[in-house]
């Protein structure tokens, strides 16, 4: 059976409120990401520079799953950020051979 291509979903957030309001929810957001990381779903994550949003790389099976997961992010639940999803297949660099541990 051929090996399944690994798709990573780039969940790109845009902050909807001033940064100080985002930062009031940041600890909850980071705890949420830590939970996803423990489940083997987060490939990487970080804030954009300048700080207008962030990027979460998710190793999940479908865009729907990626969207459902990020809908549970405290940033979304508190209305301080929204996400867009972009599927991506890494073919070069350090993520080219990445496989989800989940």
Question: Helices and strands in order, then pairings?
Answer:
Elements: E1 8-15, H1 19-23, H2 26-38, E2 42-47, E3 54-58, H3 63-70, H4 74-77, E4 81-88
Antiparallel strand pairs: 1-3, 1-4, 2-3
In brief, what are we looking at here?
With 102 residues, the chain is α+β, with helices and mostly antiparallel strands. It has one domain: Dimeric alpha+beta barrel (Alpha-Beta Plaits).
Total DSSP E strands: 4
Q: Kindly state the mean pLDDT as a whole number?
A: 91
* CATH homologous superfamily placement: Dimeric alpha+beta barrel
Count of spatially separate domains = 1
Pfam families: YCII
Family: Belongs to the YciI family.
InterPro entries: Dimeric_a/b-barrel, YCII
Domain YCII-related: 18-87
Describe the structure.
- The chain has one domain (8-89): Alpha-Beta Plaits.
- It is 29% helix and 26% strand.
- The chain has helices at residues 19-23, 26-38, 63-70, 74-77; strands at residues 8-15, 42-47, 54-58, 81-88.
- A 4-stranded antiparallel β-sheet has the order 2-3-1-4, with helices on one face.
- The two termini are 20 Å apart.
């Amino acid at each position: 059976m051929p090996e399944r291509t690994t798709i990573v979903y780039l969940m790109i957030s845009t902050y909807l409120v001033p940064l100080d309001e985002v930062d009031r929810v940041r600890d909850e957001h980071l705890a949420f990401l830590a939970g996803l990381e423990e489940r083997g779903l987060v490939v990487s994550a970080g804030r954009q520079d300048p700080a207008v949003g962030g990027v979460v790389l998710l190793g999940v099976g479908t865009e729907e799953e990626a969207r459902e997961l990020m809908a549970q992010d405290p940033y979304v639940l508190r209305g301080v950020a929204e996400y867009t999803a972009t599927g991506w297949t890494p073919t070069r660099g350090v993520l080219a051979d990445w496989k989800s541990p989940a």
